[in-house]
Every structure is written in structure tokens, then in C-alpha cells.
Sequence to fold (180 residues):
Amino acid sequence: MVRAHLVVSESLLHAFQQPESARLLRIKIEGEALELAAPPLAKRADEEADFYALVVEGVLQASPIPSSSLLIFTLDDGTRVLIKYLGLSCPVREKMLYSSSIADLKRGFAINLSLFEAHEREDVTFSGLLEALGKRRKAPAGGVATVMASSQQQPQQPAPLPFTKLEELTLTERGMEKNM
Fold:
């Protein structure tokens, strides 16, 4: 497979190195470089409110035609998440280009970013972002915290076999056991 080798622009690298001032970085592919698509957007409120205001409403719903987007969202604790949105109706070439640029972006920043990937606007939710990160959601006052990621659940043990003796097997099951 042929893939593009894109470089991270100086403006994008500079904006990325200043996480305290930016909540959201929008990235575009221009020529053979990953560029800052718009000035960094500053923190306005808590992370969840900013996520819906800046990412969902500001970027995804602002475009009438679903397009590909690469965004870097900074949580309150300083964790940065790379959001890759590739709409289902995007051209295949564009999807391939944006997908292959993830490695170039991580290499350019010299850091491994957490990835949140979505293909439909309805999938871009703050709870989905937390689930992708494997984080717990803060409990409301007097409430109970809910686990947002399935990766934190206890691993399931395989179910025991329904038989214990060879005599309990039917002829077909005996034949299958013999072939295994």
C-alpha cells in the first residue's frame, strides 16, 4: 500500500507545545504537510461543555457536508486526545489519506496520542471519548460513579463445558472431539 509521508508544520508544532492555552487544535492536510486549520481554540468551560461546544457544534455540525477531520482535544487533566472523524460519505481517497496521516502526526509530535475514532456524527460524544480513553466519569454530588470503559470490567471466564464424561457425548460430538 502506498502511503503519504506528511510533515508536521511549524505552526502546528508550536500550537501543540502550548497545551495550557489551547483546548482544541484543528488539523488539515495541505500539500505534503499537516497544518493548523484554524487558530487554537481556548478553554471556555469544563471539558465536557467545551467538547460539545467546540467539537460537536463548532466543527462537526458547522459543516453541512460530512468531511474528514483531525482534531486534538485537551482534557482538564492535560491528557490530549486525537479525534479522527471520517464521515461515511467521505471519498475513499480522503479517508485513506487521513487514516495514514495518524502515524505521521504522532511521529511529528514525538508522542503517542490516545485516539478516538468516529464515522458518524452521532458517535461523537463525550462519554464515547472517555470510554475510548478508559476513564471513569466523576460522580455527581451524592451519586455513584459509572464506569465508562468496558476495558476496565473483569475478564470473563470461559463457560464450563456442559458435559463431564465421554459417555454423555452424542455420536456426533464424539466424532468432533476425535478430530480435534
